[in-house]
Backbone:
């Protein structure tokens, strides 16, 4: 065990509260993040990542958050980097004891660079995770820091080409680190994300491109049986791009329709 | 904005991954905690807090967690402290990128001392929070670090003697920082916590004492209307002890029955 010890008790001489300089991201998961690819000194799809961070800051009441200042800082840091992954985490400093926040807290930004991960060489095998996804309509869609459900759904994955599907009872929401699209009767469907899940950047791009190209795409409630019975499936995120599904549980699935869509849209991660 | 920048890219010369020494408590809320009172150099109800931390470590697969080592460290740190609050947070270090963990991660323990908060002088006014509680049967009961729902339910509180009630649709689960007990037709009821909520130390103590003294106490699904119609109510946590409720929304509530129970059980925080 690696110990840290802080004494924040009031200085009774001056009756001043010691500044509680711990991060609420750590204490409560009070913050949000995005993960992107850096190529040739720039963040891929930067306006979408900036929009996501700004939307998250509004929803979670980070009133002092300045996305322009953030990207000015990052742009300078990454201008000589040819390729990498980046995670940008935004959280609040702790100002007082307890769950509530004042809204005047200092905002902490943590930027982590990682080596660029390769796109998977084999197709994706899906299975239904035992770990349920947390159902909370207020938090649904946001890439916030409360991700224990993703942690345990991802922990269920045993092979590099697997992804686990997270559900609320019979309702399928997303993969442990991806969004889900299935094709059924000539129509593409993707879960609505009104109860849980993250509204991914690649999901947004895919929906926009499909609508522009008059490909039928609908946001729907999707049951486990609908996933099992689908004609094609793919999962998406900013690091993987589009990943075609070749198996759902015990059942093999043809990748022709999902690969066709991928080439038709010519979507790069 | 307060920036931190980390470059974890692989050293391409040696093909070694740089050690990713960030905390998963911060990255994902991957950890758990407890909050207790210190009196005369000792943690009140220490065995129950130790049991909670141990149970959480098992549920969240912190296989290297050693509660004895933790309390040996703390006991030494607090032996001269006459009174304080303490928060003990246990989290995993990050070993690899992404949600999944290996199980071999270093375990971080953060101990924070605060000045002892006074027990409230006035009775508690309850209202139903607009913020829903996150519904996840796997995580229910555990005092884990994914507490954004508590953060926003607590943020709805405008007065020092208020507590907000967190619900799943019509089902009442708990207060933003407390457990709930209501009395109805001579029987005390408390929510089951099989979908959400924290199984509080004071809740456990109360249930045990009531059973020992043959006071009728049942763990049940409780609706909003049942709370509104109750004959008495109280909320509990380790810092507040038992807090009698004098109002639910617009409706005043007599505190006689809850205060009677408090004195009968002679429960101290």
Residues:
């Amino acid at each position: 065990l690696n110990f840290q010890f802080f004494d924040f008790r009031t200085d009774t001489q001056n009756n001043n509260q010691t500044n509680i300089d711990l991060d609420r991201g750590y204490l409560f998961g009070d913050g949000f993040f995005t993960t992107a690819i850096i190529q040739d000194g720039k963040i891929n799809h930067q306006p979408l990542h900036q929009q996501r961070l700004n939307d998250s800051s509004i929803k979670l009441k980070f009133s002092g958050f300045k996305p322009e200042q953030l990207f000015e800082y990052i742009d300078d840091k990454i201008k000589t980097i040819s390729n990498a992954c980046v995670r940008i985490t935004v959280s609040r400093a702790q100002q007082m004891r307890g769950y509530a926040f004042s809204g005047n807290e200092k905002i902490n930004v943590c930027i982590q660079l990682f080596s660029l991960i390769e796109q998977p060489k084999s197709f994706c095998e899906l299975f239904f995770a035992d770990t349920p996804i947390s159902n909370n309509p207020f938090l649904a869609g946001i890439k916030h820091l409360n991700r224990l459900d993703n942690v345990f759904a991802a922990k269920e994955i045993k092979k590099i080409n697997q992804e686990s599907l997270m559900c609320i009872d019979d309702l399928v929401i997303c993969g442990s680190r991806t969004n889900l699209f299935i094709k059924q009767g000539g129509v593409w469907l993707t879960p609505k994300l009104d109860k849980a899940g993250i509204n991914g950047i690649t999901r947004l791009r895919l929906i926009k491109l499909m609508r522009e190209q008059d490909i039928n795409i609908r946001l729907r409630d999707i049951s486990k049986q609908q996933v099992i019975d689908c004609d094609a499936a793919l999962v998406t995120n900013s690091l993987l791009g589009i990943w075609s599904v070749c198996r759902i549980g015990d059942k093999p699935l043809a990748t022709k329709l999902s690969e066709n869509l991928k080439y038709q849209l010519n979507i790069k991660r």
Q: What stands out?
A: DSSP finds seven helices and 14 strands in chain A.
